[in-house]
Amino acid sequence: MNIYFDNNATTKVDSEVLEEMLPYYSKFYGNPSSVHDFGRKARFAVNKARSQVAKLLGIQPEELIFTSGGTESNNLAIKGYLFANPKAGRHIITSEIEHHAVLNPCKELKKQGYDLTVVSINKEGVVNPEEIRKAIRGDTALISIMYANNEVGSIQPISEIGNIAKEHNICFHVDAVQAVGKISFKTKEIKADLLSLSGHKINGPKGTGVLYIRKGIKVKSLQQGGHHERNIRPGTENVPGIVGLGKACEIAKKTLNEEVIYVSNLRNKLYLGIRERISDIKLNGCLEGILPNTLNISFAYIEGESLLLKLNKKGINCSTGSACTSGSLKASHVLRAMKVPSHMIQGSIRFSLGKYNKEEEIEYTLKILPGIVQQLREMSPLYEGIKEDGI
Amino acid sequence: MEYSKKVMEHFENPRNVGEIKNPDGVGRVGNPACGDVMKLYIRVKDDRIIEAKFKTFGCGAAIATSSIITEMVKGKTLEDALKITKKTVVEALDGLPPIKMHCSVLAEDALKSAIEDYYKKNSQ
After folding, report:
1. Any chain B CB within 8 A of the CB of A301?
2. Which of A12, A43, B10, B34 pairs as cysteine with A32 (C-beta 3.0–4.6 A)?
3. A286 is annotated as an active-site residue
4. pLDDT value for A391
5. Mean pLDDT of A323-337
């Protein structure tokens, strides 16, 4: 068995998506800017994708820009807005648990003289909108908050924050990379001025993304080139990728509701099963307030990477909240912000499910996991201390 | 980040896991906040380590270095065991990813601390 539980990292491309994309590599390979037949065919495909994305987000097709993914969308939103609107102010508000694709551009801007307020979150990984309100100053230009967190899945009170931004006439950017396809929402209702989406998180191709730019909001391009994407994102369009992204959005819109029920049932079964079989665990986040597919669990006395490697050996692929595998030795900034005790941060792993997961995979995992946890606990000097103390 | 075959082999089949009852020396290093805790037990006879066991809380590299160091010290005189360094541990494992080098420091420290403990107990 080879089970994929890492859908917050990336997803399998839907076969319908792939099928739709292929002719744009081999048959209709024209440049959408060309006036001939090949070009027209490609331009038509890009326009079709634009309206497919717009329908999913509840926006107008001319309100979106195709990008190379979530990171580019976030960078373009934050820097592009501030650079285009120097009079809006030089203060940015964001939160501790943002993705690095938001936090790092903000930190870079701080180096360049912008002011940055990073609001804290509660133990469940949720921003308090009142903290945002308190952070607002006369020169606040931009508020950037994610819709849902990638590591623990915590869903943010995004409409409330949107209302606060609106009241103060401050531009509101929403990194919705993890929310799209997992939560049903309308971009206008959450009062987003800018919103980022990534193709490969919704069973679309990698290297594709979208930035929604509300009509009337100005964004300056971060690179100079041709006239593509209203001069905001120059560069020949990734036509097959855009076609795939459009198709993925169309499918997401059609199947979202049933998928949420399907995936959350599997997720709940996994969580309850783990809780029943393994002692001393902690769910990071609260079950009612997280994405339907996400489960971030800390196992006391053991370290996440060891657990991950053992699970991988048994064909179960998930990821770790501890940063051991991510190339940095710092523990997860999200779990630290949630004030999870450090040994529990070290022992955290994330299961992120998707529409292709099956019930047998949950059952198999529940059969395998307790033994592995016990094996690692028996090896752990922390567990031994607990046993000696008779706790 | 990729572990060598040797690291994975030791991680999957760690040697000498457990504790020694009434050990002649114990070393405990690291802390849970950093992600690694290693406890190394030794039994010594005639200045020679005749048995070594470990318990480790940590990543794959931490478990593999613990495992291999228990093999490396077995049968060595205390003097020779003290010559084991993080470098020899890493070499014995056919290398560690750069980001995991600190795990080998932990193994060396645990060994030194266990031997120190032995000396302390025996000087009294």
Report:
1. yes
2. A43
3. no
4. 41
5. 69
